Amino acid sequence: MKINARTIKRGGGQIFWHLIIILTVCIFLYPLLYMFFSSFKELKDIFTAGVRLLPKKWIDTNYSSVFNKLDVPRLLFNSLVIAGLTMTVKMLTSILAAYGLVFIPNRHSSKIFYFFVVTMFVPFSVIMLPNYLTLTKLNLINTLIGVVLPQLADATAIFRIRQAMRCVPISLIEAARLDKVPHMTCLRKIVLPLVRPAVVSMAIFLFVNSWNEYFWPLLILRSNELQTITLATKYFSGTEGSTGWGNVMALASISIALPLILYLFAQRTIISTFMSSGIKE
Questions:
Q1: Core-most of 17, 97, 155, 214, by most CB within 10 Å?
Q2: What is the DSSP string of 124-167?
Q3: What element of type H or E holds 22?
């Protein structure tokens, strides 16, 4: 069996790119593995082991300390409420806005869309103080609604869902409208099933982004009963090197469990979204 030079070159190129992919995965995966295994280490083991992953001595006292000192189920519930409400409201406004921009066009549609795009480049820190002052006047400081209220819309979500809806043939909507089908029915029965991968992946992205938020909930929430799982890490932080890093690693491992489970269940949908993002009608 003869193997020509082109076949050898092609095989060598595939091996090279596979090695690059494996190396990239290891780079991104190492911090997560280090965090997880460090949650089973003693404090002295964390700082003396260097880049070693596995602990010299496996302990579970870090997790027991976290559950003894903190109301972990309550923290998870608060995070779930905030992330769930934020994701739901953002998806609702984004889907409606994207549908209007694509299937109910007017002479100002392009200007409105470009306005959304411009707001993507405005950092949240710029509007954080006006939002805080507004919530203070509304007496919404130290409430879960106060965390969610300034996040009722997301320009990135509108942009991504609009791009997905542009791949839907507008003739389908025009035919339905000729039969006097309401726009909400067109959205629910025609458009959403066709852009489901994009909607699901965007919903998970918004949920995880809200779940991981730290500074804005820290600014709004004051009482311990309303704290989120990400804010709870401050209880193990001290001055002059007294931070309980084992407890912090254990709490961080607990906090990533739900987002990780969501990704594992929806990974095929997310991958299909990225694969179809470059396909045009």
A1: 97
A2: HHHHHHHHHHHHHHTT-TTSHHHHHGGGS--HHHHHHHHHHHTT
A3: helix 5-38
pLDDT tens digits for 170-214?
Answer: 888 989 988 888 999 999 999 999 998 889 889 998 999 999 999
Parent domain of 92? 60-276
Question: Residue 191's domain is classified under what CATH number?
Answer: 1.10.3720.10
C-alpha separations of 60 from 42, 72, 106 in Å: 9, 16, 61
Assess if residue 17 is contained within a domain.
no
Query: Would 228 be classed as within a structural domain?
Result: yes
Q: What is the mean pLDDT of residues 105-120?
A: 85
- How far apart CA 27 and CA 190 sit, in angstroms, is 42
How big is the chain, counted in residues? 281
Nearest to 151 by CA among 89, 221, 219, 217: 89
Residues 36-95: tens digit of each pLDDT: 988 898 888 877 756 678 888 888 898 998 999 899 999 999 999 999 999 999 999 999
d(CA 275, CA 273): 5
- Counted domains in the chain: 1
- Tell me which residue has tokens 């409606």: 96
Q: Is residue 136 assigned to a domain? A: yes
| 233 within 8 A of 252, measured Cβ to Cβ | yes
**Per-residue model confidence (pLDDT) at position 50:** 62
